[in-house]
Specification:
- This protein is mostly helical.
- The chain folds into 2 domains: about 1-70, no CATH class; about 75-135.
- Helices cover about 65% and strands about 10% of the residues.
- The chain has 4 helices and 6 strands.
- Strands 1-5 form a two-stranded antiparallel ribbon.
- Helix 1 (about 15-25) packs across helix 2 (about 55-65).
Length: about 140
């Protein structure tokens, strides 16, 4: 049983739901389903069960609006736009990093090329060929 009176004031059923849902990771449901009645008796039986992540999103909707309708249309659009912007930013960053990595690799290749040629057998063979051609 849950006492619906807090600080001497009778709580609204949505307030009770919000309070219970915030207190734990469970999804609470009020047993008496009187939709017209906004106030409840002093003692109230509450049934609850812990569910997966899908129920948690439902629980968040109850918490955000207080009436269990979920987010408003504008709020959803705003969130979607923000997500898109973040994704775009990440993509740009990844592209930039890839480009820098590629440039760094190319620079390394250029720096290594002369020393590689000087130390290789290929260079010695070229020297011998040039020597014979000069005679």
């Amino acid at each position: 049983m849950v006492n619906t009176e807090r600080d001497g004031v009778l709580m609204n059923k949505h307030a009770i739901l919000r309070h219970l849902n915030m207190a734990s990771g469970a999804c609470f449901m009020i047993t008496p389903s009187d939709k017209e009645e906004s106030r409840l008796p002093e003692k109230l039986s509450v049934s609850w069960k812990v569910q997966g992540q899908a129920s948690r999103s439902g629980q968040q909707q109850i918490n955000s609006s207080g009436r269990g309708r979920g987010r408003g249309r504008e709020e959803k659009k705003k969130k979607k736009k923000k997500k898109k912007k973040k994704k775009k930013k990440k993509k740009k960053k990844r592209k930039k990093e890839k480009k820098e990595k590629k440039e760094k690799k190319e620079k390394k290749g250029i720096l290594l090329l002369p020393s590689f040629i000087l130390q290789s057998r290929f260079c010695k063979i070229l020297e011998i060929l040039l020597f014979f051609l000069s005679i």
